[in-house]
Amino acid sequence: MVLVESSGITHIGKRRKDNEDAMFLDDEVGLYLVADGMGGHQAGEVASKLVVETISDYVKSSRVNGDKGLNVNSDETLSREANRLLSGIQLSNKVVYEASLNNSSYRGMGSTISAVYFTDDTCIAANVGDSPIYLIRGGKIKLLSVLHTVLAEQAAIDPENAANLGMEFRHVLTRAMGTEESVSADIYEIQCFKNDILVISSDGLSDKASPEEILKTVNSHQSDQACQRLVKLANDRGGDDNVTTIILKVKKVKPSSNSMHRYVNPVKRIISKFFNNKAILKDT
Predict the structure, then answer these.
(1) Which of 45, 189, 51 is nearest to 116 (CA)?
(2) Structure confidence by residue, pLDDT tens digits, 202-259
(3) What whole-number distance in Å separates Cα of residue 85 and Cα of residue 245?
(4) Are 134 and 199 in contact (CB under 8 A)?
(5) CA 204 to chain centre
(6) What does the domain layout of the chain look like in residue ranges?
């Protein structure tokens, strides 16, 4: 059993007309989501809302009624809960994709998703896109999610040539929810410990605050105050984008005998694939 103190906030920022971020927090289920939508005519707002609603509904329903349907292709190296979360992500991708096909004003819409899901004694982090998930443990901060951008993936493959890419490529996604019929999420499951802290945010925060600044703010304030200060920091530095952050502080863990540490490595793709028609330019 994991006892979590959670707090979250989403803000329109200073430059946008609409808030295309969406978030979900449920301490009873142990599920926390941040989605950053993209697409004109409020389509990004529709996409992010569909993503968080579909995943949360699927996970809650599966806990009660059992895991069915999408889990026929489950990954045997992952826990039941991790497969449940991946199934919810796959289903939500399908929902957004079909909505974009059925409504001309939603064509091309998409979203990121970053999710944290607690089991009895582990923490599962899964993501598609570039909304980061950080783990704070032992006074240090670590990125748990995988940034699916041209710049980040090129830096992982070839750091020297990545320096030749302009900073605009940090917003060109190589994966997003709803832009294709199927999607692949990266997932990381680790043993959870008391005093662990997880931070999920949209890039409206991570573009403006360094991991070290996030670490300092979270360690210095209660969760709700830290959320407010991080949003203020992003807005004080321009507020160019919507800003969303969720802070999760682990207060208690009762470990089981099935402790685990599983990781699905991100797929490394050659740089030529980054410049095809499937690259996705985020709203900036």
Answers:
(1) 189
(2) 999 999 999 999 999 999 999 999 999 999 999 999 999 999 999 999 999 986 655 5
(3) 20
(4) yes
(5) 13
(6) 2-281
Mean pLDDT of the 78-103 span = 95
For 2-281, which CATH class?
alpha beta
- Residue 33 structure tokens: 């989501």
User: For residue 101, what are the contacts with CB-CB under 8 A and spacing of at least 6?
Assistant: 107
Q: Give per-residue pLDDT as tens, 17-76.
A: 999 999 999 999 999 999 999 987 679 999 999 999 999 999 999 988 876 655 446 788
What are the structure tokens assigned to 266, written together? Answer: 């991100």
d(CA 29, CA 40): 33
- CA 145 to each of CA 36, 116, 132, 134, 167: distance values in angstroms, whole numbers, following the listed order: 15, 10, 6, 7, 20
How far is residue 242 CA from its own chain's centroid? 15
Q: What is the pLDDT of residue 254?
A: 82
pTM of the model: 0.89
Can you tell me the distance from the alpha carbon of 225 to that of 136, in angstroms, rounded to the nearest whole number? 17
